[in-house]
Write a structure and sequence with these properties.
Elements: E1 10-21, E2 24-33, E3 38-49, E4 55-65, H1 69-85, H2 90-96
Antiparallel strand pairs: 1-2, 2-3, 3-4
Length: 98
């Protein structure tokens, strides 16, 4: 019998990779839903201090689904290319008007 209360919710983490980058850590986690649909979460974690000097981790999370991978990668690659060269790729302007 299917648990309808958890339908569409996160079920399993099937792959994980942590990348330490200076003061930040990025976590790339592949998870599946109850329907076995894979998706990616990207979490940025940064150590911060409150007013009393105690530390805590500030986290920002992005959920990326399979149907969006291609467009996400195109946008990421265009942005990286712009940072490297100072010029936007031609396709970036065309896609922004769609």
């Amino acid at each position: 019998m299917e648990d309808t209360e958890n339908k569409g919710k996160e079920r399993d983490e099937i792959f994980s990779r942590a990348v330490r980058a200076g003061k930040r850590t990025y976590f790339f986690d592949v998870k599946t839903t109850v329907e076995d649909e894979a998706y990616l979460t990207i979490t940025e974690s940064k150590r911060r201090f409150d007013d009393q000097g105690k530390f805590f981790y500030e986290k920002h999370k992005l959920f990326l689904y399979k149907e969006d991978f291609e467009k996400f990668l195109t946008g990421l690659n265009d942005s990286l290319e712009f940072i490297k060269t100072g010029k936007a790729p031609d396709r970036a302007e065309a896609e922004q008007t769609e």
